[in-house]
Amino acid sequence: MNTARGRFLPSCMLVLATALLALLPFNTVQAQSEGSVLSQILSGLQPLIQPGQPQPATQPQAASGTCNARYEAVVTEVNGSPMSQVVRFGQFQSLGSGRMPVAAAKEAKENAERCMQSQWSGRANGLLPFECTDQQRISGYTVRDIERTLQQELCQAINPLPCNQGKADIRYSLFAVVDGGPGCGTRMSPVSRTMLASTSVVQCMCQDNRRGDRGWDRGRDGRRDDRGWGRGRDDRRDDRRGSRGWDRDERRGDRDWRRGRDDNRSGGRLSAPQQVTPVQGAVFYHLPRRTLLAWEPVQRAESYLVEIKYKGRTWNTMSTNGDATFVAFDFPGSGQGEWRVIPQGRRGRQGAPSPWSSFTYRR
User: Fold this and answer.
1) Which of 30, 42, 141, 209 is deepest in the core (most CB within 10 A)?
2) At which of 203, 226, 249 does a domain end?
């Protein structure tokens, strides 16, 4: 019994060893095949998973916005004679940046407005504010002394200058204007017109009274009057009563009239113009009753129709082209006036009218 068991065990061990030797080549080939495939996959992923060398994350490029800005002085009177003329000067560009184009365009518009408003508010010191010197935000700004530059531009623009009295008094209103393409402002406010000075006076002195209209001294400041029309020599006493009306209402109007606009980029009816001056309920005391009506431009408007009422009845209807967003006229008498603006597009199609706004002349 023990002899038979001893013979059987070696035989079984021999059979198992033979079977293992037969399977060894097959397993080796299969392992090599699987290892080759795995090595190919790892080699393809090697640039993406190199240890110790993190790949830089993709950063979104910052968008940029650009606006065109300038000063606009609207001349309404020269030596008591009515005039309607726009004097543009100080053109420059403002820049904005941000992760989104909308934010960049909005910042560009705000940078231009901040520069011009800071320059005008600090005009007494004759210095250039930081808001206008930052080259990352402002490009091409050349106005140094805003009051002197304004006087020179006005005296030079009125040609010929009426010098029969040896001087010329020019009444004007000053605006800061910002506009541009899709990279400027917001959808609701692509253009802004901010009033900086209302119906101020600048005086141009002639070089020689005998030379008439042939020259003036642009280097002399002359007698200035920035407090309104009612500060003339003829009605100075009466204007003391009116300063509580005119000056107070116009100070209330020295603000930005940008909100609520629609540039109609999606088409459809033209939006209603935003009225700038005079403000609702303004009270005037000056003579003559020279009146300036101004409003914000409307996208795609080619002309404007201005309706004016006197004591509740239609008194006059005036029209202007798309470049001019103001009218100037002599009001017929004391009492209440009302006005509104209607934009007109191609083929005379009218847009939405602005609301009626009222003002009053006390004398």
Assistant:
1) 141
2) 226
